[in-house]
Amino acid sequence: MFLWSGYKCIRFICLLICRRCKKISKENLINEEIRDKELRVIDSDGAQLGIMSLEDAMALANEKKLDLVNISPNAKPPVCKILDYGKYRYELQKRDKEAKKKQKTTSVKEIRLSTFIEVHDIQVKANTATKFLKDGDRVKVSLRFKGRERDHANKGLEVMRLFTEAVSSVGTIEKKPEFEGRSLIMILAPKAEKADK
Prior knowledge:
alpha/beta; 4-stranded mixed β-sheet; 8 strands
């Protein structure tokens, strides 16, 4: 049978405690987790109770059978509120869900063109870009020059102009065509009235 020495046993216990402390969330500290000596306390009704010691605040919370929650840890002194922590967390989660529902995410879709592309192919790619713009997404149009095609930069700009005209009914130029390395990059954004529909 293996016996631990006193030092190894203490070290093991310290590791367990440290591991447990890492799991404590960075949310609000409640009840015994609060370490500050003086706190500004707010009642569950929202009434200011003033600055008091941690022991007095804990006694008040226990008397009302509620939790003491540190809602503003960076204030001097930290602000704590007496409330039901379960309901408080539920309200926060509900508020976050509502904010996420109202938040509209836009993504950037990419269309690739080439220097010597045919007019019909430009129209096909423009139709795809039109669908993206109608969905409210931004479109990144890139045209990569291969080999000596860089000598025909004006041809690449002409292709970009034709593409822009093809999607002008639903999109506007957010970033004009610019060279980034060997590529010509342009970004189109949906027109405001089309994006809302």
